[in-house]
Amino acid sequence: MVVVVTKLVHCLHRSRRHGHYNMNQESTAPRVTERPPFDRSSSQDSLDELSMEDYWIELENIKKSSENKQDQEVVVVKEPDEGELEEEWLKEAGLSNLFGESVDDPQESMVFLSTLTRTQAAAVQKRVETVSQTLRKKNKQHHIPDVRDIFAQQTESKEKTPDGTESQSVRTNENKYEGKDDQASSLIVYNKELVNLASEDTPASETDINLEVSFAEQAVNQKENAKDKTQKNKGCDTSLPSFRLPKDKTGTTKIGDLASQDMKKVCYLALIELTALYDVLGIELKQHKAVKIKTKDSGLFGVPLATLLEQDQRKVPGTRIPLIFQKLISRIEEGGLETEGLLRIPGAAMRIKNLCQELEAKFYEGTFNWESVKQHDAASLLKLFIRELPQPLLSIEYLKAFQVVQNLPSKKQQLQALNLLVILLPEANRDTLKALLEFLQRVIDNKEENKMTVMNVAMVMAPNLFMYQLGLKANEQQELAKAAGTANIMLLLIKYHKLLWTIPKFIVNQVRKQNTENQRKDRKAMKKLLKKMAYDREKYEKQDKSTNDADVPQGVIRVQAPHLSKVSMAIQLTEELKASDVLARFLSQESSDVAQTLKKGEVSLYEIGGNIGERCLDDNTYMKDLYQLNPNAEWVIKSKPV
To answer: At what angle do helices 427-444 and 305-315 cross, to 10 degrees?
Structure first.
């Protein structure tokens, strides 16, 4: 997809729609009412134009619903200065202590860097070099690391790579789409996207997603192995494969399964991995920051997600998804998901406006009459809620990164990028997006009755999540390409949403390695301290070694369940023993009523300590395999967090 490169400015103009993410320098209204004329000079089939019909109709509906709105402040996106983008990136990647007047603990960063793959290291090195050059230009006197020093130690310890592989030759100017704005290129990409969208029902064999090897490393290998096949296979990736997660005996890790400290490391690694993947494929990744503006600190519509959740949690402690969002979905479902044209047919604009005002006044008081809200009204209000967020649901920082997913060569790489981007979203955005995608899937499950296929739903929802793009000036063919591209991203988000909340195993393994290295350094420091204090070091080491297995024979684990009748049980490890089997043994000791309640998924088996902080295990985890991966862990059955 053609990337429209436009200069961001510090002060942007108002838009007639609250929450419009205007990135245009001129004060022109977004062109949403006029649909770009379709170029018939090509051999494009008329079906392609029809396949976008829902998209353009939705844009017209959005325009009509916003005509009577008063001017509101827009989100201002600041253009980064030279080196600022890379410096901010290093902070987001947890490497800020490499720079600054006082370097806190460079050893911590060294441990982190030692766990990176060669492509991840290349991505970091490239940004470090840019920041170093910028600081030298500005004659900054504080500590500037030499990248050769940072990466020298780990270069020797990395796995040997095939001869000829340039692990640091990461170039963004390879992007064949960037900077091109000729209509021919736009139309080619537009046609390609429509072919992809139109082939949603094409039967496709199931394809495993490799989560054990870095996505960027896979991309490097694919590029090297497919040099002779590039032209031959170009443009053939037109179907939506049925991707699946391969069976992992140590268990699949989902977002929400890890403790916050480990999840923080996952986010650092996800950003570096995403950047490495984009670098390898020649796609420029730019993060944006929104300049702070005054936003509503109460209410329902146009309120920041974090603020909304704070006020909701005072009403319902522990809630992770805005109450109004949940209620609107519930109202739609009460009307039956078999309704034809659901999400596509809008409610009357004036009625929606009146309902908004009434909701703002009565929702939290509990006096709002939900019987007055028709099903199509609730669907329009749900989409309006998404559009009116002061910052987009996909976050201002990563909107561009989501946008350029369409430029990645294969559907598998697009899926990999979306997986990493979902991990990087703020928690409130991620939880709300998940609830939205799960709801959309339920709508699609009734497509035989409601006539809303995954393509129809993607076309309708894309403008609501990607409305910010309409502020960009573009020629007609670029408008078409942009529309098809955002619809394609929406399609992927919906179709693969069950896979996108998985944390890749290679990232979890990197976290384990970091924890192991940090523990090793801590033990080393402790031993030095004990020696200095004249303690019996041998006694300490003996106690430390025997802490976990003092009363447990080899091949047996002790599982703790402090909140159940049977608080502890020694369990023999076998090749076939799963986490679900361990839970079943404990539940068999409970009364039938308690066991029935617990079977609903309210409790899980956790892996705690060793080389991981805390991890909730999925039922199909093979305990012996996991024990071999983390022999020093403790095993605890406890309630899942709300």
So the answer is: 80
